[in-house]
Amino acid sequence: MSDAETLFERIIAGELPSDVVYQDETTFAFRDINPQARVHVLVVPRKRYRNVAELADADPQLLADVIATAAKVAELEGISGTGYRVVFNTDQDAGQTVFHVHAHVLGGEQLGLFGRYN
């Protein structure tokens, strides 16, 4: 991993503006600037790991915190009772563009089928 700061670290530090939804000691949640659903919030651990596999291996409790924050975001956004999706993109082929692990919380509308079906 590069020592250079990621975009998310600059957002967490308050150097770049964001629409904050929730934050606590270990996580930071803010609205995606290019939403793919009516509700599209990113949940980022304050400590940087490249992707979800690296996070799970290094700090399972922090991964649990990210998931708990995703559930809290769904509650705050009023979608916990209607359904929501939590997505981690891992590496370039999956669409990861910022290499600081983050969960996408998507919902607030009927979401399409996920994945490829034969």
From TrEMBL:
Short motif (Histidine triad motif): ranges: 100-104
GO MF term (any one): catalytic activity
Active site: 102 (tele-amp-histidine intermediate)
A Pfam family recorded for this sequence: HIT
Transmembrane segments: none
PROSITE patterns noted in UniProt: HIT_2
Annotated ranges, domain HIT: 7-118
Protein name: Histidine triad nucleotide-binding protein
Organism per entry: Amycolatopsis rhizosphaerae
